[in-house]
């Protein structure tokens, strides 16, 4: 693995973003690491802060119209800063380890066939702080993060797939997850709907994982492939339990919404697409019954 792109998805938190970028500039030791800042065209407050950011040739600003999902924003890196590994970052978590970029690439190189994902230490009991999929894993899945979810769930999906294919490894890099973490989330609403939607899509995730496992360039013995193909039961049961707990706390969670007004058009488009997909899913189930 020869180069890393760090894609920092951000919206209207320029002060936190500036601190996060400064930490990455100070602690990334490779000259070929790209620190990509993905902003929205209507995020004028962040644009006004550009002068407060470090001057470093590795920083790349990309401003585009706001997508309907964060997954689409993370996929900007595939077009504007292609790399061997993609660190999917946020604007409120500084990196504290010197040479964290080199360590992530070193761990990614452990995947002999280039298919896998590097995790940073766990942010909570369920998920790692950050994920860094290899370009070859992204190619096989079709995206860095899923484009269907307007908030959350994208790291959950990648984690499920990586667990099913048995391809994740931890890089011991330190981050500061608590001090700048906001108490609100953009587009956070309809939690019960989105957890149920995620649960219904488990067959899709299983199919993605099995396609990767059974591909010719996925290096494993036939017996190992068969074992991996049978691992979905543990992964899916875990995911359903996580989402059941989230649903039980939906009211408290939705109180943490960052945008207090009515849902924006991007959110409404994402939900409409999900509802349409669910309708087709249930029609297929009914026809198969």
Molecular structure report:
The protein is an alpha/beta fold. It is 46% helix and 12% strand. It has 13 helices and 7 strands. The protein has a 4-stranded parallel beta sheet. It has a 3-stranded mixed beta sheet with strand order 6-5-7, sandwiched between helices. The longest helix is centred in the C-terminal third of the chain and has 24 residues, at 265-288. The termini are far apart.
Total count of helical runs of at least 4 residues: 13
The helix/strand class is alpha/beta
Query: Uncertain regions: pLDDT < 50 for 5+ in a row?
Result: none
Q: Write down the overall mean pLDDT.
A: 95
Please summarize the sheet with the most strands. 4 strands, parallel
What are the key terms here?
289 residues; alpha/beta; globular; single chain; four-stranded parallel beta sheet; three-stranded mixed beta sheet
């Amino acid at each position: 693995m020869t180069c890393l792109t760090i894609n920092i998805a951000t919206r209207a938190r320029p002060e936190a973003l500036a601190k996060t970028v400064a930490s990455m500039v100070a602690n990334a030791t490779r000259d070929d690491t790209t620190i990509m800042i993905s902003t929205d065209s209507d995020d004028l407050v962040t644009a006004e802060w550009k002068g407060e950011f470090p001057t470093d040739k590795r920083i790349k600003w990309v401003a585009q119209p706001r997508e309907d999902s964060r997954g689409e924003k993370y996929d900007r890196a595939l077009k504007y800063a292609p790399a061997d590994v993609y660190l999917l970052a946020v604007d409120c978590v500084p990196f504290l380890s010197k040479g964290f970029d080199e360590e992530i690439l070193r761990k990614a190189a452990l995947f002999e066939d280039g298919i896998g994902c590097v995790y940073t230490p766990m942010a909570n009991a369920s998920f790692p702080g950050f994920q860094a999929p290899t370009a070859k894993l992204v190619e096989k899945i079709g995206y860095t993060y899923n484009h269907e979810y307007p908030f959350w769930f994208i790291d959950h999906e990648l984690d499920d797939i990586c667990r099913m294919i048995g391809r994740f490894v931890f890089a011991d890099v330190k981050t500061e997850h608590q001090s700048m973490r906001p108490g609100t989330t953009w587009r956070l609403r309809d939690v019960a709907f989105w957890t149920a939607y995620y649960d219904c899509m488990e067959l899709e995730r299983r199919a993605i994982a099995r396609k990767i496992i059974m591909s010719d360039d996925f290096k494993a013995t036939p017996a190992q492939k068969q074992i991996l193909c049978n691992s979905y039961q543990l992964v899916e049961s875990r995911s359903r339990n996580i989402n059941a707990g989230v649903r039980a706390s939906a009211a408290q969670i939705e109180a943490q919404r960052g945008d207090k007004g009515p849902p924006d058009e991007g959110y409404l488009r994402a939900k409409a697409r999900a509802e349409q997909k669910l309708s087709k899913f249930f029609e297929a189930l009914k026809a198969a019954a």
